[in-house]
Write the structure tokens for this entry.
Amino acid sequence: MKLYYHPVSTTSRPVLLLAADDGIALDLEVVDLFTGAHLQPAFSGINPSQQVPVLEDGDFRLTESSTILKYLAEKTGSPAYPSELKKRARINETMDWLNTGLYRELGYGLVYPQTLPNYKREDAAVQKANLAWSREKARRWLGILDTNIIGNRKYLCGSEISIADYLGIGMLSVGEVAHLDYSAWPNISRWIATMKARPTWAKVNEGFYAYFVGPYKNAVFEGL
């Protein structure tokens, strides 16, 4: 199986982390987002949406991180995606919740407009208003995640790690680029620490910290 990815990608890193934890062999090909390789005809022919990750399994191709996680876990029999109906439904529900709510406001609303030029609004007043809007919405989602989803659990869906945790930690850790402080949400902070303590974390995220977090070390951002 072949994975097109970039090491800083919020949606590539969850797939890489699952593969590292479960020993899933992938033929890796970097698509350099920083040079715009994802916008060129060669990659557009692979994924017209011009996004990573993309998984190829023979002549079968998938282009969404959440679906790739499910596919890899199902194909390899990973315990991170149990077959029991209700457990699997809860994992699917959590992944949908992360994608449609939290990531939209936290990533695309608050982090990316401050770190990626193509997401920044040209008008300063519009930029400020959009950041304020997204901050308010993100704080609401974080409150739900902290109290109602994690609560006293070790992981998002129970006592065992699931592919929802892999997807979620990619989304929450992107906040490190903009120096977001999650200390107001102790259950989130505890869960993040648990995920980052995994022995595969440092290696998988080496490029993320070197090429995305590091360059913004001394920058000033609008926080939570």
